[in-house]
Automatic annotation (TrEMBL):
Domain of life, per lineage: Bacteria
A GO biological-process term: DNA damage response
Organism: Pyrinomonas methylaliphatogenes
Keywords: Signal
Keyword presence, Signal: yes
Signal peptide, first to last residue: 1-28
PANTHER family (alphabetical): SLR1258 PROTEIN (PTHR34387:SF2)
Protein name: DUF541 domain-containing protein
Length: 323
C-alpha cells in the first residue's frame, strides 16, 4: 500500500515537472511586439503595425474595453505567433497576445512616425456610341365637337402606328405614352368662359435598336398624319462594359494622385486601405428639341453623336513619408 502511494507521488511529481517544462518552453517561444494599433482593411480586425511587419491581433476583443485601446496607440504585446490560425482577415501575421499594454517609449512612438493616411478622389469620363433611340410621336387634332376631335385623332393615330410598325421592324417597341381630350376655352373680360372647340392628343413612344431607321420612322409618321415630335433621345442600354471602364479609369486616376502625393513627400504608397465608389452617371440621353411636323417631303437626317459616362472613386491609402 505504501509502495503504491510512493509510486503515485512519483508519477505526480513527474507530471508536474513535465508541465513546468512545457510552460517554460511555451514562454520561451513568446514574442514581444512593439508597434501601433491599426484597423485592418476588412472591418472588425486589429493590427499591431511595426516598422517591418504587421501582426494580426487574434484576441483583440480581450483588450477592447481598455480606454487606451484605439487606433494609433503605441503598444507592447507579449504573446505567440499563430501561423496555423484560420482567419477571415487577409493581412498581418496571426498573433495571440498574452499581455498588451500602452507604451510611451520613444522608440515605439517613432515606429510609425513616417506613416500617414491620404484620401484622394479620382474621376473619369468615357465616351460611347449610343445603341438605342427613343422617339415620342404625337397626333393632335381639333374640332368643334369632342366626338369629331376624338374620332379624327383615332383614325390618324391608327394610321401612324401602322406606318411606324412597318418601317421600324419587329425589333422596335411601340407603346402609348399619353392621351388627352380637352376643351379649348375662350376667356374674355366680364364674360363667362366659353368652349370654342376640343383638342385630342395621342402620343406614342417608339424605341429603336437600329439607329439608321430613326429618320425613316419620323418621315413615315408624318406622312401618316403625325404632326408633333415630343422628344427624340439617344441612350445606351448595354452599358455594363462602359461603366466598368469608367470606374477602372477613375480608380487609376485616384491611385495616380496618391502616388504623386507620396513622391512629393519622398515616400511611397504602402497599401490601399479603402476604395469607395462615388457613383457612375449612366449615359445621359441625348435630346433633340420637340417640334411640329409638316408633311415630310425630304428624308429627315439624324446624327446620334456620342454619349458620356462619368465615374468617381474615393480612395484612402497609407503612405510612407521619409523625413
Amino acid at each position: 500500500m505504501i509502495q503504491e502511494a510512493m509510486r503515485l507521488l512519483a508519477r505526480l511529481a513527474q507530471m508536474s515537472a513535465l508541465s513546468f517544462l512545457l510552460a517554460a518552453a511555451a514562454l520561451a517561444q513568446e514574442t514581444t511586439v512593439r508597434g501601433k494599433l491599426a484597423h485592418t482593411v476588412e472591418p472588425g480586425g486589429w493590427l499591431i503595425v511595426t516598422a517591418q511587419q504587421k501582426f494580426l491581433l487574434l484576441n483583440a476583443q480581450r483588450f477592447r474595453s481598455e480606454t487606451w485601446f484605439r487606433e494609433g496607440t503605441a503598444v507592447e504585446a507579449v504573446g505567440q505567433l499563430r501561423p496555423d490560425a484560420i482567419t477571415t482577415f487577409q493581412e498581418g501575421l496571426p498573433f495571440e497576445a498574452r499581455t498588451l499594454k500602452p507604451t510611451t517609449d520613444s522608440d515605439s512612438r517613432d515606429l510609425l512616425s513616417g506613416f500617414t493616411r491620404v484620401t484622394v478622389n479620382g474621376d473619369a469620363t468615357v465616351q460611347a456610341q449610343p445603341d438605342t433611340a427613343i422617339v415620342t410621336i404625337a397626333v393632335v387634332t381639333q374640332s368643334k365637337s369632342a366626338l369629331e376631335a376624338q374620332q379624327e385623332n383615332a383614325r390618324r393615330s391608327d394610321a401612324v402606328q401602322r406606318a411606324v410598325e412597318a418601317v421600324a421592324g419587329p425589333g422596335a417597341e411601340i407603346k402609348t405614352s399619353g392621351y388627352s381630350l380637352q376643351p379649348q376655352m375662350d376667356y374674355r373680360p366680364n364674360v363667362p368662359p366659353t368652349i370654342t372647340g376640343y383638342v385630342a392628343r395621342n402620343a406614342v413612344v417608339v424605341t429603336l435598336n437600329d439607329l439608321t431607321k430613326v429618320g425613316a420612322v419620323i418621315d413615315e409618321a408624318a406622312r401618316a398624319g403625325a404632326n408633333n415630335i415630343d422628344s427624340l433621345s439617344f441612350t445606351l442600354r448595354q452599358d455594363r462594359e462602359v461603366r466598368a471602364r469608367a470606374l477602372s479609369d477613375a480608380a487609376r486616376a485616384a491611385l495616380d494622385k496618391a502616388q504623386a502625393i507620396a513622391r512629393s513627400l519622398g515616400g511611397r504608397v504602402i497599401r490601399i486601405l479603402e476604395v469607395e465608389e462615388g457613383g457612375v452617371v449612366r449615359p445621359l440621353p441625348r435630346y433633340e428639341l420637340s417640334r411640329s411636323m409638316p408633311a415630310a417631303e425630304a428624308s429627315t437626317p439624324i446624327e446620334p453623336g456620342r454619349l458620356e459616362i462619368y465615374a468617381t472613386v474615393q480612395m484612402t491609402v497609407e503612405i510612407e513619408a521619409r523625413p
